[in-house]
TrEMBL record:
<feature type="binding site">
    <location>
        <begin position="105"/>
        <end position="112"/>
    </location>
    <ligand>
        <name>GTP</name>
    </ligand>
</feature>
<keyword id="KW-0963">Cytoplasm</keyword>
<dbReference type="GO" id="GO:0005525">
    <property type="term" value="F:GTP binding"/>
</dbReference>
<comment type="subunit">
    <text>Part of the signal recognition particle protein translocation system, which is composed of SRP and FtsY. SRP is a ribonucleoprotein composed of Ffh and a 4.5S RNA molecule.</text>
</comment>
<keyword id="KW-0675">Receptor</keyword>
<comment type="function">
    <text>Involved in targeting and insertion of nascent membrane proteins into the cytoplasmic membrane. Acts as a receptor for the complex formed by the signal recognition particle (SRP) and the ribosome-nascent chain (RNC). Interaction with SRP-RNC leads to the transfer of the RNC complex to the Sec translocase for insertion into the membrane, the hydrolysis of GTP by both Ffh and FtsY, and the dissociation of the SRP-FtsY complex into the individual components.</text>
</comment>
<dbReference type="GO" id="GO:0005047">
    <property type="term" value="F:signal recognition particle binding"/>
</dbReference>
<keyword id="KW-0342">GTP-binding</keyword>
<keyword id="KW-0472">Membrane</keyword>
<feature type="binding site">
    <location>
        <begin position="187"/>
        <end position="191"/>
    </location>
    <ligand>
        <name>GTP</name>
    </ligand>
</feature>
<keyword id="KW-0547">Nucleotide-binding</keyword>
<feature type="binding site">
    <location>
        <begin position="251"/>
        <end position="254"/>
    </location>
    <ligand>
        <name>GTP</name>
    </ligand>
</feature>
<keyword id="KW-1003">Cell membrane</keyword>
<dbReference type="GO" id="GO:0005737">
    <property type="term" value="C:cytoplasm"/>
</dbReference>
<protein>
    <recommendedName>
        <fullName>Signal recognition particle receptor FtsY</fullName>
        <ecNumber>3.6.5.4</ecNumber>
    </recommendedName>
</protein>
<keyword id="KW-0378">Hydrolase</keyword>
<dbReference type="GO" id="GO:0005886">
    <property type="term" value="C:plasma membrane"/>
</dbReference>
Length: 299
């Protein structure tokens, strides 16, 4: 998990670095608690979660002498307790055949990359998949998915830009049934600036998929970019309004992201967190672990 640790805590603007040296041999009085709460807010956790964690720490330690290490361990425990219920590793190669998985999220959040990473893993496991370039609005998205498919040796179904995404998804599920494929991984358009259009587009994909399989889509994975900070929280709300989101992947935790927003999401939403993205390569997708994440965050 070193990439996660490096990404989340090593640079000077991150929570882990800010905590180091801040509470050594200090009394955990009101001043110290306020400082701690501010650090948590600065890490993108949001005011409510920061207050909750700080007051939990104060319950047993108020006015007591503490050390950095003790504060970090206590924080990690609190964060892990919030996130543990959301830890749910998913095995896409299991379940119904074909399992239809939709990936939703705003443009640039990392949908295509995440599909590529998951597809590469599934290929290694021997699962037979088809990738569907359902973001028919952007030529770059179609090209990028094609590159991932070629690299992993997985077929990609696409249509020229402007084509009907729902029709493409229908053809892909039909093909998957005919060819006995295990998985249909669908990229979708993410134009959140036009919510009504986005909603009707996703609804249409779902409606059309259900003509071939009443249970489809079996998963609706919301991909979130950690570098947008607290905005990720409003994206969860927006997408839960437009689609039946079943789980979350958070990307770009290797870069400038502070990462605290995933704690806020875990606290506010009863949604499993499946994976975290820590880079642009196929191997840079890790199953989400509450303990590892909490530890990486506090450094
Ligand atoms: P989409 O528009 O949602 O399909 O997003 P893309 O998959 O095209 O990703 C947008 C950019 O983010 C690309 O340059 C990706 O290489 C990059 N990216 C995606 N996931 C990660 C990640 O976990 N870490 C880093 N550093 N970059 C990522």
């Amino acid at each position: 998990f070193s990439k996660l640790t490096t990404g989340l805590s090593k640079s000077s603007s991150k929570l882990g670095a800010s905590l180091t040296g801040a509470f050594n041999k200090r009394k955990l009085d009101d001043d110290a608690l306020e400082e701690l709460e501010d650090l948590l807010i600065t890490s993108d956790m949001g005011a409510r979660v920061a207050a909750k964690i700080t007051s939990n720490l104060a319950k047993t330690r108020f006015d007591k002498d503490v050390t950095d290490q003790e504060i970090k361990e206590a924080l990690a425990e609190e964060i892990e307790a919030i996130m543990a219920p959301r830890e749910q590793v998913v095995d896409f190669s299991d379940g119904p055949t074909p399992r239809v998985v939709l990936f939703v999220g705003v443009n640039g959040s990392g949908k295509t990359t995440t599909i590529g990473k998951i597809a590469s893993k599934l290929k290694e496991q021997g699962a037979k998949a088809v990738l569907v370039a359902g973001d028919t609005f952007r030529a770059a998205a179609i090209e990028q998915l094609t590159v991932w498919g070629e690299r992993a040796g997985i077929p990609v179904m696409s249509k020229p830009t402007g084509a009907d995404a729902a029709g493409l998804v229908y053809e892909a599920i039909e093909k998957a049934k005919a060819d006995n494929l295990d998985l249909v991984l669908v990229d979708t358009a993410g134009r959140l600036q036009n919510k009504a259009e986005l909603m009707s587009e996703l609804a249409k994909i779902v409606r059309v998929a259900r003509k071939l399989d009443p249970e489809a889509p079996h998963d609706v994975i919301l991909v979130l970019d950690a570098t947008v900070g607290q905005n990720a929280l409003s994206q969860v709300e927006a997408f839960r309004h437009t689609a039946e989101v079943s789980g979350i992947v958070m990307t770009k935790l290797d870069g400038t992201a502070k990462g605290g927003v995933l704690v806020a999401i875990a606290e506010a939403h009863d949604l499993p967190i499946h994976f975290v993205g820590v880079g642009e390569k196929a191997e840079d997708l890790q199953p989400f672990s509450a303990a590892a994440f909490a530890k990486a965050l506090v450094g």
